[in-house]
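User: Could you check the structure of this?
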Amino acid sequence: MSMIGNLARIQNDTLLKLRQSPEQITSLLYPDMPAAVPAASLTPIPEADTMDLDKAWHGLHFLFTGSDWEGDFPGGFIVTGGEPVGDVDVGYGPARSFTPDEVGKIAKFLESQKETDLRQRLDPEKMAELEIYPDIWDRISNPDEENEEWDYLLDGFRRMKQFIQEAATKRMALLVYLN
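Assistant: Sure, the predicted structure tokens are below.
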């Protein structure tokens, strides 16, 4: 079973409603699945406002923080920080939410990250030691394989950076969750 990192841009009023009624998040994130509580008061999230980081989420977190599960805001936003949306499990625990102001700080952080610096932080040996998901880092045996994994992480970084920059420009809130 895979652990997929996801981002969703939402309007701030939707975030406020979720914080009041967190049980509605399942219907919001998974509108095609039967849900215990209909999210009638919430507008469905347009597909353009969702992003799948696939399995790159944990590697990106490592590149930003040098850690497996730790990290200060805004660098650690993929796995730490934000306010949990209640205790509703949306895959691997609750989604975490970030306000539009926090999204702006995340966007500035991502903008400040130089790709060459991130590349230098790619350390398959350390990533294997920390069990950075997906647990493939100890199987990298040559520079071509390392470059292939770097390209995968770089693609995720670039897409995420653009996605969050658009959220910041539109003053949107953000949900981060694993499923």
